[in-house]
Amino acid sequence: MPDVLFFVKDREGRYTHVNQTMLRRLGLKSRKDLIGKRVAEVYPSGLGANYANQDEQVLAGEVIDNLLELHLFANREPGWCLTCKRPLVVNGKVQGIIGISRDLGPQDGHESQYEKLRLALAYLNANYAQNVRMQALVEITGFSMSKLQRSFRKVFQLTPQQVLAKLRLQMAMHLLHGNKSLTEIGHACGFSDQSAFARQFKQAVGMTPREYRALANAQQFSTETV
Start and end of every HTH araC/xylS-type domain (predicted)? Predict the structure, then answer.
């Protein structure tokens, strides 16, 4: 897929694997021009610092999903992309980063729409623990409700409601590795009550929050005793 960029980094943030799309985006001819380098050695200072900050978050165990952001094409023209980054976990420990980025194309009149969607996504990220009204996204973007739904589906392949549910579940999975009670986690992630949390979690993950926590704790114990 010529519009999908793929990369793997080690714990130091150095590229270990990249595909041809990434080389083309950066205007490079060979993988050896990129392997072993960090983002600060590849991108302009502003972008490099932003990507490095993302890497630190992922190496700490966080997941970055459907991040709508600007990047530079090989001709140094700005364009939009949709980025996902996840920890590379080996034997229960984070050993690096796996990333995928889908090009949405250079700025060609759609930049205003993408910027509005970025603001809507930022609002969901900041407020997923609250009772989020879809009307708030309409007000942020200036779209009609039908256009909001269409735009989210086109870019994220999800409705705004599905993006919100995904954010809540991802945060819940992260918190279940800690010591907070299930009630505290459900409340912190925006679920209306404990039964709604358990029901939606099981529907999406295939097990209850309690079962997921037990599995996560067992895996951690197994890793520590090796």
Answer: 118-215
> The pTM is what?
0.69
52: exposed, middle or buried (Cβ count in 10 Å: 0-12, 13-18, 19+) = middle
State phi, psi for 25 to the nearest 5 degrees: -60, -35
pLDDT by position in tens, the chain (length 226): 678 999 999 999 999 999 998 998 888 889 999 999 999 898 877 778 888 999 999 998 888 888 888 776 665 566 788 899 999 988 888 999 999 998 876 555 556 788 899 899 999 999 999 999 999 999 999 999 999 999 999 888 889 999 999 899 989 988 998 899 999 999 999 998 999 999 999 998 889 999 989 887 776 655 555 4
Contacts 24+ apart (CB under 8 A), 73-78: 73/25, 73/106, 74/24, 74/25, 74/26, 74/27, 75/27, 77/106, 77/107, 78/106, 78/107
Helix (H) or strand (E) holding 18: strand 15-18
Distance, in Å, from the CA atom of 177 to the CA atom of 162, rounded to the nearest integer, reads 23
* SS3 letters across 116-149: HHHHHHHHHHHHCCCCCCHHHHHHHHCCCHHHHH
Read off the tokens for 133: 């009204």
Domain 111-225 bears CATH identifier 1.10.10.60: yes
Place of tokens 């900050």: 53
CATH 1.10.10.60 residue window(s) in the chain: 111-225
Angle at Cα 23 formed by Cα 73 and Cα 3, nearest 5°?
Answer: 60
